[in-house]
Amino acid sequence: MHSACVALLFFISACSSHTIRETVSCCSPSELQGYAYSSGIVFQSGQEVSFYGNSWYYYSEVQQKIATLSYILIPSLGNLTVQVKTLQDYTTSRKYTVTNGMCNITSLPGPFARSCLPSNAVSFGSLKLGSPTQYLTVNSYQYTASSAVTKTSVESMKYQETSSCYDVVVSVSTRTLGGTLISNVDLAAGNHQTTISNTDVFNVPSECTNNSFMKEKELLRDLPLDFMKYII
Fold first, then answer.
1. Are the beta carbons of 215 and 55 closer than 8 angstroms?
2. What domains are defined for the chain?
3. Side-chain-facing half-sphere of 192: CA atoms under 13 Å
4. What is the DSSP letter of 202?
5. What does the alpha-carbon distance between residue 214 and residue 173 come to, in Å, rounded to a whole number?
6. How far is 59 from 19, CA to CA, in rounded Å?
7. Which of 68, 142, 161, 170 is such that its CA lies 20 to 30 A from the CA of 26?
8. Measured between alpha carbons, how far is residue 10 from residues 4, 15, 90 in Å?
9. pLDDT tens for each residue of 109-144
């Protein structure tokens, strides 16, 4: 697995050597699982909070479910370690979030949406990640997404197989509409499979069936622990 910082350097090189052009959208395979390493910062109450994470993620268009399991280290909070499991079940419109063994259930905002490169994405060309003889050819893209209060910029390197594609490196920066930085996350992904090896990941977490419920702690509420949404 390549480090995010090296991959981002490759991204800059690709931008300088290719003509920027509009892109043709591609979508994730109907089923996809992988592993990702992430690092980032978030500004909370004027304080910069850094974190590192390792995550497994599972996406199924067939079952209309998305699951993740993440282990997150927050050095700036005394090396706080957080285990986060999520299940988005669009068949019941529920999202289950288990933080250090405690469950929180919320409603999903809408129906299942296929994971696709947005139509406003701009292509910066392709490049080879790896050595001269062993490498992976990826395509580089940039796009933005806005809400009522934020604007998110995404730089993505995607591997493409026929009409399907998925991320291997992502950089996500979120700002207020006024330009103030809220969070920045770099992520490198690998070990992809286009089938789900263990469908039990799509079962409702046991912590959510034994009354281990909680409201999200103030300490963790604003941390972008759902950064996986940008790659699946």
1. no
2. 4-230 (2.50.20.10)
3. 23
4. G
5. 29
6. 33
7. 68
8. 10, 9, 37
9. 889 988 888 888 999 999 998 898 998 899 999 999
Structure tokens at 162: 């026929």
Read off the tokens for 65.
Answer: 């479910």
User: Stretch 12-21: mean pLDDT, rounded?
Assistant: 33
Nearest in space to 26 (alpha carbons), one of 154, 149, 196, 141: 141
pTM, 2 dp: 0.79
3-class SS at 62? coil
What's the Cα-to-Cα distance from 70 to each of 14, 100, 200, 228, rounded to whole Å?
A: 31, 11, 16, 9
> pLDDT per residue over 140-178, tens digit each?
999 998 888 999 999 999 998 887 999 999 999 999 999
Cβ–Cβ under 8 Å, residues 170 and 155: yes
